[in-house]
Amino acid sequence: MSGILEGKRVLITGVLMESSIAFHTAKLAQEQGAEIILTAFPRPTLTERVARKLPKPVKVIELDVTNAEHLAGLESVVRAELGGLDGLVHSIGFAPQDALGGNFLSTPFESVATAMHVSAFSLKSLTMACLPLMPKYDSATGKGGGSVVGLTFDAQVAWSQYDWMGPAKAALEATSRYLAKELGRENIRCNLISAGPIGSMAAKSIPGFTELADIWNHRSPLEWNLSDPEPAGRGVVALLSDWFPKTTGEIVHVDGGLHAIGG
Predict the structure, then answer these.
(1) pTM value?
(2) Catalytic residue among 124, 162, 181, 246, which?
(3) Given the residues 27, 59, 169, 204, the one annotated as active site
(4) 144 is in which domain, residue-wise?
(5) What value does the mean pLDDT take over residues 153-172?
(6) How far is C-alpha 94 from the geometric centre of its chain's CA atoms?
């Protein structure tokens, strides 16, 4: 029995640790039949080490999404490795320490700009860098196009300690909607998974993360496991597949249902 990503070629960013959603997305994608390529920054060797735990060998390329030269060179490297792309996973977010941890009112614009560039604008710049790699859409056959899936943390509300990553995620969510609008004619779908808290490297860099995550112990309708990134990875793989052919501009919550619960 073939997997739901059989024959798909997918670029996945953000694989830093085995505990990350991106790693489990990569693992599930391979298990479901996809060929994948990973990007890493600033330490490709870290990703290469973690990638050895995947079911199949995979190439890791260095990619700084704020570097125009890196983005310009992405097409030739990926084309040489995979021939093209059918899917892209954006699992990238960063804010300087002075933009987190209860410093919202004092954060300088330079730090806010960094958070916005890396965490939100990069969805657009990375998608455009990968666009030439996606098969041209043929309306007569319905073939071609692709799927872009990003990861967010619910930006509908303000979270303690999350500070400027909140507005950055809100910008990411808006960017995904605008990409869905602009790229729909190319049959390219752009969606996000809004995941609950996971004890990854990125999460642990957020001051007060333990207190934030504890909310899920008290309010999540479904039991939430901080050490299990697989449910979110499954959501990403589903959106990469052909099982959501007419879904775009959407935010799918994989958070145990907490987003739907009031105080």
Answers:
(1) 0.96
(2) 162
(3) 169
(4) 9-256
(5) 95
(6) 12
